[in-house]
Specification:
The complex is a heterodimer of chains A (108) and B (118). By secondary structure, chain A is mostly beta strands. In chain A, 0% of the residues lie in helices and 47% in strands. In chain A, the strands form 2 sheets. In chain A, strands 2-10-9-4-5-6 form a 6-stranded mixed β-sheet, with no helix packed on it. Chain B has 118 residues and is mostly beta strands. Chain B contains no helices and 11 strands. In chain B, strands 2, 4, 5, 6, 9, 10 and 11 form a 7-stranded mixed β-sheet that branches. Chain B has a 4-stranded antiparallel β-sheet with strand order 1-3-8-7, with no helix packed on it. In chain B, β7 and β8 form a beta hairpin. Chain B starts with a strand and ends with a strand. Classes of the chains: A mainly beta (108), B mainly beta (118). At the A-B interface, β5 of A face β5, β9 and β10 of B.
Chain lengths: 108, 118
């Protein structure tokens, strides 16, 4: 089973700052990694697929990078609505889909 | 656009079977290239994939839940369903259904809270 480890668990930043979230896989998943955003009381929303492609309607301030075992989600300049929990998910052996434990992005 | 809606009892007794249905609207569950999945989230915790089904009935389950999970599909009703047997308090969670493709889960239903309690 592929295990995904996200870091940090919590990230405290201010609006306008740059956010960098990490996801590490226990074995290579090539570029088959997705990122989701979840706001309180809402279902998760697909942000990034195939490591670096923005899903439909996702603002350009969100970007993803990485391949193999190390991946990064970057938010270039935080907007108030970006404070949420972010999850990565490996897609290399879909339709099985392991999630990371999440990173909470909170307002400093 | 495609929408998914979970339905089912919000309260289940310990040792009984949890049953939920996901109704798909705005598109056909028989579309090729897509699976249909169930994901759950215990209160205050992260996401756990439960399992996925293709319109033909082919299924994949999380190994940690496989002995208790059954996912089925009814193409005539554009629905797929989840059954989880022998539930305990640890199965209390928000249960989501979602369309699945290689890119990921998108879109998701709004989720439904199922509490296991006597």
């Amino acid at each position: 089973e592929i295990v995904l480890t996200q870091s940090p668990a919590t990230l405290s930043l201010s609006p306008g700052e740059r956010a960098t979230l990490s996801c590490r896989a226990s074995q290579s998943v090539s570029s088959y990694l997705a990122w989701y955003q979840q706001k309180p009381g809402q279902a998760p929303r697909l942000l990034i697929y195939d490591a670096s492609n923005r899903a439909t309607g996702i603002p350009a301030r969100f970007s993803g990078s990485g391949s193999g075992t190390d991946f990064t989600l970057t938010i270039s300049s935080l907007e108030p609505e970006d404070f949420a929990v972010y999850y990565c998910q490996q897609r290399s052996n879909w339709p099985r889909g392991t999630f990371g434990q999440g990173t909470k992005l909170e307002i400093k | 656009q495609l929408q998914l809606q979970e339905s089912g009892p919000g309260l289940v007794k310990p040792s009984e079977t949890l049953s939920l249905t996901c109704t798909v609207s705005g598109g056909s569950i028989s579309s090729s290239s897509y699976y249909w999945g169930w994901i759950r989230q215990p209160p205050g915790k992260g996401l756990e994939w439960i399992g996925s089904i293709y319109y033909s009935g082919s299924t994949y389950y999380n190994p940690s839940l496989k002995s208790r999970v059954t996912i089925s599909v009814d193409t005539s009703k554009n629905q797929f369903s989840l059954k989880l047997s022998s539930v305990t308090a640890a199965d209390t969670a928000v249960y989501y259904c979602a369309r699945e493709e290689q890119l990921g889960f998108d879109p998701w239903g709004q989720g439904t809270l199922v509490t296991v309690s006597s």
